[in-house]
Amino acid sequence: MIQEERIEILNDEKVRDGEYVLYWMQAAQRSEYNHALEYAIRRANELQLPVLVFFGITDKFPQANLRHYYFMLEGLKQTQKALGARGIKLIVRIQSPEEGIVVLAKKAALVVVDSGQLRIQRQWRLDAANKVECPFYEVETNLIVPIEEATDKENFSAGTLRPRITKQLDKYLVPLKHTKPKKDSLSLKIESVEIDDIDKVLSNLKIDKSVGKVEFFHGGTDVAKRLLKGFIKNKLDKYDTLRNNPCEEYSSNMSPYLHFGQISALYIALEVMKTNSPGKDAFLEELIVRRELSHNFVYYNYKYDTFASLPNWAKRTLNVHRTDKREYVYDKEQFENAQTHDPYWNAAQKEMVITGKMHGYMRMYWGKKILEWSRNPQTGFKIALELNNKYELDGRDANAFAGVAWCFGKHDRAWGERDVFGKIRYMNAAGLKRKFNPDAYVEKINALEKADKGIS
Questions:
Q1: How far, in Å, CA of 161 to CA of 163, rounded?
Q2: pTM for this prediction
């Protein structure tokens, strides 16, 4: 089922005679559980036309580097094959997406695009919609509840968004039926980049290649579904009690795949809901309420990637304590190279650099300490966001922006006042020791580092 509320028309053009219905795939890089793709197929079947899918690779996406592109291309290879099995051709071009779609739209009856909440995504879609001379539909497929259906404004905590989301779940938590295209597009002769050789594709991109690919996570819907199946079978039951213990492995590891749209949040939720696991509710809270709160943040707060995005009380208390004496002060280079006095923080930084993902609980501690050890909160905010976006596979994402902002007071309340932090929630090493064995975590990451460097 594709709810009408998921679909928005972005221009006033009329359907015209065309050679195909064009789906601009960008934020939902998958062939299944994709409302935008299914909508394109259904409209194409009505018009007795094939569906053509386009993906544009720009080498100018903010803060994206080789690590991110490699993971994305691994997923695109799988998606291209999966689409081909459905008789749908995926055209890939090294071209700014909002420009490439306009070119291909010249022969389209109508255009469909998936939804994205970041500034660049929204600007791309509006620019393209104003230039194409056929209807341009945007379809929300990466969220359970479309943002504007949940609320028409920024929500300041999970507590305010939760009831708005919850009351609509019966409507939106429903399976998506896959439709068979009536016409095949594989025979269409349209220029496309060959993506089987990922290294060759990357060699043609002018991107930051200083951050290499990781061996711990590989892109693709098949990989994501395999990880999800293992998580549900082996980890979900203890998710509620062990997910905040970085010495254990009870995270779902879905965030990189959700970031690139290689797996659907709806699909994940429906698979988890099939179980009677005691960890089900805690997981769904993170997947739906917390994740969609992050998207609400970047959609309604245009300053989401700056210190200015913080609530007034947080900015005020941090500025009051801006000149407080810090026991330790580090610059970006020292943070990046894990050169602080704190072995727990250093281990968290190394985990991110080596694997492309940091344990969620340590990411909170990591961000709080950057706030504490930077020369001022504005500098700390900038450093945390830059490092997170540079090394995390799920960086440059609504959850990444909200996660860093949370460390500085976003989606939280005022706590007891103290030096440097003001009324921002505080975390320290003693708190880690109450939760788990942080020395064991350090040993785990040190072993990981040796293996990564080939040291026996």
A1: 6
A2: 0.97
Q: Residue 278 corresponds to which tokens in the numbers above?
A: 């005691």
Establish if 185 belongs to a structural domain. Answer: no
The answer to whether 201 and 195 are in contact (CB under 8 A) is yes
Exposure of 67 in the CB half-sphere (CA atoms within 13 A): 25
Residue 73 belongs to domain with CATH number: 3.40.50.620
| Residue range 247-293, pLDDT digits in tens | 999 999 999 999 999 999 999 999 999 999 999 999 999 999 999 99
The average confidence (pLDDT) of the chain is: 97
Using the Cα atoms of residue 337, residue 373, residue 424 and residue 249 in order, give the sign of their dihedral: positive
pLDDT at site 455: 67
Q: 136 by DSSP, 3-state: which?
A: strand
Do 89 and 10 share a structural domain?
Answer: yes
Mean pLDDT value of segment 115-139: 98
For residue 442, give the 3-state DSSP assignment.
helix
Contact between 252 and 235 under an 8 Å Cβ cutoff? The reply is yes
The two three-digit tokens of residue 319, written as one number: 């500025």
The secondary structure element, H or E, covering residue 452 is: helix 438-452
Share above pLDDT 90 across residues of the chain, in percent, rounded to a whole number? 98
Same domain, 163 and 247: yes
Read off the pLDDT of residues 182-204 as tens digits, 9 standing for 90 and up.
Answer: 999 999 999 999 999 999 999 99
413 lies in the same domain as 357 = yes
Asked whether residue 166 falls in the same domain as residue 99, the answer is: no
CA distance linking residue 83 with residue 88, whole number of Å = 5
- Is the CB of residue 144 less than 8 Å from the CB of residue 265? yes
Looking at the structure, tell me whether residues 295 and 356 fall in a common domain: no
Rounded-to-integer distance, Cα 352 and Cα 365, Å: 13
Domain span at residue 122 reads 1-142
Do 118 and 147 have their domain in common?
A: no
Residues 259 and 331 in one domain: no
Q: What are phi and psi of 109, to 5 degrees?
A: -75, -35
Q: CB–CB of 361/239 below 8 Å? A: no
Amino acid symbol at 375: R
